[in-house]
Amino acid sequence: MEKKQNENEETLSSLLGGIINGGIQVIDLTMTLDQRTPTIVLPPEHGQSWPFRLEVISKYDERGPATYWNNMSCGEHTGTHFDAPIHWISGKDLPNNATDTLPPDLFIAHASVIDVSLETKEDPDYLLTIERIEEWEKINGNIPVRSWVLMRTDWSKKTNPTEYLNHGDEGANTPGPHPDLIPWLIEERDVVGFGSETVGTDAGQAAHFSHPFPCHHLMHGAGRCGLPALINLDLLPAQGAVVVAAPLKIRQGSGSPVRALALVGK
């Protein structure tokens, strides 16, 4: 037991040492929250998420000469955020399904990054398929159990909110996973969840699929999570990065903005 404890302590010390000496790089995967942060837009009958808003309480002035602080307001699913299983009706009855009850070890997981940025540059409605991932696995190895699958599209490089949301007459035109991919990721690869650079984990046209919003419905129904609106996926290796993404501990929270970080060995 003592030997095992010493080994665990050495592992943690090695990790911390790697971060301090630069052998392990910490990459920020998080959008900056401000009034321009794109917010998902749903049909009017579905209700709308608040945009991010910051209100100064005091800033070294007559309201508080020694303090600078703010009130803020936004929806749970604003900017780079975490989707908990309770977010969707399919996950509403699962145990430990909210941001305050999820096992915290889920917030630290390996990342498999699937680069389809060339495909999405040509087709904004591109759908990531099983076949495309199997091609990727031939080069990079299988997606390990308990990994995030992160779909790299370079969509986060669209700094204009209108271009980022890319709304047309029939809704948003943004890439996402093919409906057939989601059950395969759950059953064949046992993933923690799916992450994207777009405002949500589903494709922009997913409302029109025969099974609407399959990433939300199937992932959350299986107790898996989502991590939308990521940035800097182009700085991550295909395999080997570790993602740290912990939501706020909101009682019965369906999600929350996160500061998502990736640990990458140089």
Set out the fold topology.
Layout: H1 2-21, E1 24-28, E2 53-61, E3 64-73, E4 81-83, E5 108-115, H2 117-122, E6 127-128, H3 130-140, E7 147-152, H4 161-165, E8 167-168, E9 171-172, E10 176-177, H5 181-189, E11 193-195, H6 214-221, E12 225-227, E13 239-244, E14 255-257, E15 261-265
Parallel strand pairs: 5-7, 6-10, 7-11, 11-12
Antiparallel strand pairs: 1-15, 2-3, 4-14, 5-13, 8-9, 13-15
Briefly summarize what is shown:
The chain has helices at about 1-20, 115-120, 130-140, 160-165, 180-190, 215-220, and strands spanning about 25-30, 55-60, 65-75, 80-85, 110-115, 125-130, 145-150, 165-170, 170, 175, 195, 225, 240-245, 255, 260-265.
Question: How would you explain this protein's 3D organization?
Answer:
The protein is an alpha/beta fold and 266 residues long. The protein has a single domain (21-37, 76-265), classed as 3-Layer(bba) Sandwich (Glucose Oxidase, domain 1). The chain contains six helices and 15 strands. It has helices spanning 2-21, 117-122, 130-140, 161-165, 181-189, 214-221, and strands at 24-28, 53-61, 64-73, 81-83, 108-115, 127-128, 147-152, 167-168, 171-172, 176-177, 193-195, 225-227, 239-244, 255-257, 261-265. The strands form five sheets. Strands 1-15-13-5-7-11-12 form a seven-stranded mixed sheet. Strands 2-3 form a two-stranded antiparallel sheet. The chain is globular and about 60 Å long. 38% of the residues are buried.
